[in-house]
Structure formats: C-alpha cells, structure tokens
Write a structure and sequence with these properties.
The structure is a single chain. The radius of gyration is 18 Å and the shape is globular. It is 33% helix and 28% strand. The mean pLDDT is 93. The two termini are 18 Å apart. The protein is built from seven helices and ten strands. It is of the alpha/beta class. The chain has a six-stranded mixed β-sheet with strand order 6-7-8-3-9-10, with helices on both faces. A four-stranded antiparallel β-sheet has the order 2-1-4-5, covered by helices on one side. It has one domain: 3-Layer(aba) Sandwich (Rossmann fold). Bound molecules: adenosine-5'-triphosphate and magnesium ion (MG). The site of magnesium ion (MG) has 3 residues, from helix 1. The site of adenosine-5'-triphosphate has 12 residues, from strand 2 and helix 1.
C-alpha cells in the first residue's frame, strides 16, 4: 500500500542572484514497510527532500501526501501532531537530552504527546536495543553507536509509520555503523515501518530494497532490488 507520495516538489532557497534550487520537480512515492535508500553527491538535495517529505520544511511548490492527505494543507498544529505521531526522525547528530537517562530519552516523545506509554511496545524496543542496564545511564556514558541506537528507539516510541534517517551512521565507525543499520532494518521488518534513509555510503545503500539517486535536485535513478531500474 502506498503511504507517502510527493508530486512535483521544488525547493528554492533564497532569491535573486543568490537563489539555490535544491529540488527541481521531484515526484515519487513510498509503500508501507519498504526500505528505501537515498544517495547522491553532497548538495544534491537529499536532506532537503527528507525534510519536505517529513513535514519539517515547506516546499516552494509541489505537494506531499501522507495516506492521501495533503501534508502542507494542514495548519502548523495539525502538521506537528501528524509529525509526532506518524513520523520518526533520526539525524547524524544523536540529539539526546543529556540530562535524561537513555530510557527517559526513549519515553520522552510519548510523554510530550501526553499519552500513556504502550508498555509492550516500549519493552519490545528496549529488548531490540539490547542495552540492558545501560539504559539507566546518561547519554554521556554511552558510545556514539549506543547513543544513536537510543535515538532510533526514541524515534520509534510513538509507533510511527515512517522513519526518516539522514546519515544516521555518518559519525560512527564501521562496527557501530553496522549495528545501527541492523537496528534500522530490524525495525523496518519487525514493526513494518517504512524506512527512508539518506546515506553517502554505497555499502549501506545496497542493503536497501530500493535506491533513489539524486543529482542536482532531481531523481536520476530509482531502482528496486530484483527489478531493473525503471528510471522513474
Ligand atoms: N537553509 C538553506 N538555505 C540556503 N541554501 C540551502 C539551505 N539548505 C540547503 N541549501 C542548499 O540546497 C542544496 C541542497 O542541500 P541539501 O542539504 O539538501 O544537500 P544534501 O544532498 O543533503 O548534501 P550533504 O550530502 O552534504 O548533506 C545545497 O546547494 C545547499 O547549499
Ligand atoms: Mg544532507
């Protein structure tokens, strides 16, 4: 089932001489549970696309539909509720709250949403993380890879339909990067979460079911595993 779709997205930063066209006419869609990597050179518009798909940044023109609902027709409040409940975000920087323990960080989005934590789901996440009693530690006592895994669990706490990850392994060594990727794949498979992952790393991209390549703000390749690249 198609869950997210964008049509004719354009994004222009600035104006006049200094204007930068970050996205030019990007149209694509994502199905429930798919794992899609987004690749492309620095400055090709990967982060911009992720932010617009995730309701973090308005496009200059074009539309994004979540389950057929026009994201940017929502008011700010409706959009932020949708973002909080349906989307999860993971960035290169872990962005954990330093004064809270790892476990408290994971629960934070649920508490901010003024909802009761789904204990079963949270224990599943905790089990998935395999951090044991390290969950009672502050982020500063955890390795980079462990912090990023906590950030992923936090992003999944509200049971989002889509997880957006922008270079989540960018700050990590190979081994920690692999653990982080394994957790993302597990989440996508076990929880049925759609995963849209931006990466420079071809080894990581090749583990996805689908790879979108952006160049100069446009999709130049879109290929699925087991299917010839259809270029659309
Ligand atoms: N807030 C902004 N203001 C002005 N220009 C911006 C802004 N954000 C991005 N850009 C420009 O838009 C283009 C696309 O940027 P974007 O961050 O999406 O690229 P990227 O593919 O994520 O690059 P990287 O791999 O380096 O993270 C670049 O030319 C960038 O300089
Ligand atoms: Mg980027």
């Amino acid at each position: 089932m198609q869950i997210l779709e964008c049509r004719n997205l354009q994004k222009i930063y600035g104006s006049g001489e200094g204007a930068v066209q970050a996205l030019r006419d990007v149209s694509t869609s994502f199905t429930q549970g798919e794992f899609c990597a987004v690749r492309g050179p620095s400055g090709s518009g990967k982060s911009t696309l992720l932010h617009i798909l995730g309701g973090l940044e308005y496009p200059t023109s074009g539309k994004v539909f979540y389950r057929g609902e026009d994201l940017y027709a929502y008011n700010d409040n409706q959009l932020s509720i949708l973002r909080r409940r349906r989307f999860g975000f993971v960035f290169q920087a872990y962005n954990l709250v330093q004064e809270l323990t790892a476990y408290e960080n994971i629960l934070l989005p649920v508490l901010l949403d003024k909802r009761k934590p789904d204990k079963k789901h949270i224990s599943l996440l905790v089990e998935m993380l395999g951090l044991g009693d390290r969950l009672d530690h502050l982020p500063s006592a955890l390795s980079g890879g462990q912090q990023q895994r906590v950030a992923i669990a936090r992003a999944l706490a509200n049971k989002p339909s889509i997880l957006f990850a922008d270079e989540p392994t960018g700050n990590l060594d190979g081994k920690s990067g692999k653990e982080v990727l394994a957790l993302l794949k597990y989440a996508s498979r076990e929880l049925g979460v759609t995963l849209v992952l931006v990466t420079h790393d071809l080894n990581i991209a090749e583990q996805a079911e689908r790879i979108i390549t952006l160049e100069d703000g446009a999709i130049t390749h879109d290929s699925r595993k087991g299917a010839p690249g259809d270029g659309s």
